[in-house]
Amino acid sequence: MIENITLATDEELKLWHSKDYIKTMKDASQGKAVSNLFRFMSGDNVNPSTKKLPQGIEEGARAVVKNSLLAIDYISEKLYLNFREGKVRERKCPKYRNN
């Protein structure tokens, strides 16, 4: 089992998100009023009575991102090592007929 206690950094988040998005989510998660919050999300993602994100949710999201990146790295490394050792063969996915 892989255990991780670190959160995704801003640099890791920038692989998918803009600086403006990251700052907006960070500010909103700290309870700050953010004027452009709904530019990035719909109203069903916020507390209906306060119109704010739950405090600290950004930290939880960073944990999910970091663990996803670690899983990708782990799988990629395993596939590479298995391929190098001849344990992986090219397979076609039955769901997609044209591959």
Key descriptive features of the protein:
elongated, mainly alpha, 4 helices
Tell me what you see in this structure.
- This protein is mainly alpha-helical and 99 residues long.
- The chain has one domain.
- The protein is 47% helix and 0% strand.
- The chain has helices at residues 10-13, 19-29, 37-40, 57-84.
- The protein is elongated.
- The mean pLDDT is 81.
Structural class: mainly alpha
What value does the average pLDDT take?
81
What is the 3D shape?
elongated
How far apart the termini lie comes to 33 Å
Low-pLDDT stretches are none
As a percent range, the share of helical residues equals 40-55%
- The fraction of residues assigned to DSSP E strands is under 5%
Q: From the structure provided, what is the oligomeric state, counting identical versus distinct chains?
A: single chain
| Main beta-sheet strand count, sense and barrel state | none
Cα gyration radius (Å):
19 Å
Number of separate domains: 1
The tally of strands reads: 0
H and E string: HHHH
Number of helices: 4
Q: Outline of this structure?
A:
With 99 residues, the protein is mainly α.
Which SSEs are present, and which pair or pack?
Elements: H1 10-13, H2 19-29, H3 37-40, H4 57-84
